[in-house]
Amino acid sequence: MFLGAPRFFKSGDRQCADFSTSRTSIRIHGSLGGRSEYTIAGWVNFPMIAHQAYVWDGYFDSILLVADDKLMCVHGSERLAFGEPVNLTDWHHVAVTCDGSQTSLFLDGKLHGSVPIAIQGSIMSIGAKGIGMPDVATFCGALDDTFYFNRPLTAPEIATVMTARIPMFAPSESRPQAGSPESPKPQEAAQVNPPDPFAIVASADLVKTFRNSLVFVEGKSGAGSGFLATYSNGTYLFTNAHVAAGVKGAGFKSLDGTPLQIGAGSAAVGHDVVLMQTNSSAKP
C-alpha cells in the first residue's frame, strides 16, 4: 500500500517511483519475507534525499540504510556498515543477501561488504522507515525494479537480476492493438502484459467516484482499507484477509468518520479477500 504521495516519473529509459517526500513509502501489511535466508535487490538513485535514508526497513532489523555515504544495516539498536563509505551519484544496483549466518551487500554486482549477523528479511516498508522517527527524515528517493528472493543468490545470479526489468506504462500511453506489428502473439500475452502498476496514479479518480463506498479499517496494531458493495442479497464490507487478521480490535468507519456496524464475516479460501455483513446506510 502506498503511503503519502509517491511520484512516478521517467529517468532516462526508466519509469520509477520517487519517495522524496516526507512520510512517503510503500507499507507492506504483515511484512514481506520474515526469513533469515533471502535476497532483496533493486536499483537505487543516489545520493539519498535524507541524511538517514531507509531503503528497505523491517519490524526489528533494517536491511538497507544509507547514512553519511555508508551503506548499512541495523540489528536492534546497532548499526553495521557494509564495507567502506561510498560517494555515489545516479543509478546503482544494490543487492543484500543473507545465508542465515551473515548478511552481504553487492554493489553493481560486486561484493561490497558483509556483516557477521543474520539480518531478518522481514520487510515492512520500502522507501522510508516503517515506524516513524519524530523530527527525523528517513525517505530515500527514487527506486526501480525491486525483487525479493527466498534464498541467497550467487554473484552470477545477481548479475542476471541486474538485467531484469519490470514493465511499467504511464496511464496516458496507448497500448498496441491486437493484430498490430507491435502486439505480442496470443500465447505470449499473459507473460508480456502484466497488470499495470501505474494504475495507482488513477486512484484519486476512484476515490472521488466511490468515496461514499470506501471504508477505513483501524486498530491499535495497524490500519487498512475496504469498500462497501452489493453482493448477493445484501450489503457487505470487502477488505483483505491480511487486514482482517492483522488489525486487532478493528473499528470501521467511512471517509467522513461515520462508524460502521459490521456483522459476521467470511473468507475466500486461497485468496486475500474477506467480506463482512453490514446494515450500513452508506452507498454501496
Task: Describe what you observe in this structure.
The chain has 284 residues and is mainly β. 9% of the residues lie in helices and 45% in strands. The protein contains 4 helices and 20 strands. The strands form 3 sheets. It has a 7-stranded antiparallel beta sheet. The chain has a 7-stranded antiparallel beta sheet with strand order 2-3-14-5-10-11-12, with helices on one face. A hairpin with a 2-residue loop joins β16 and β17. About 11% of the residues have low confidence.
Features:
9% helix; 20 strands; seven-stranded antiparallel beta sheet; 284 residues
Question: How is the topology of this model organized?
Answer:
Layout: E1 2-3, E2 7-11, E3 14-19, E4 25-33, E5 37-46, E6 52-58, E7 61-67, E8 70-75, E9 78-81, E10 90-99, E11 103-107, E12 110-115, E13 122-126, E14 141-149, H1 155-162, H2 189-192, H3 203-210, E15 214-219, E16 222-231, E17 234-239, H4 241-246, E18 251-254, E19 262-267, E20 274-278
Antiparallel strand pairs: 1-4, 2-3, 3-14, 4-13, 5-10, 5-14, 6-7, 6-13, 7-8, 8-9, 10-11, 11-12, 15-16, 15-18, 16-17, 17-20, 19-20
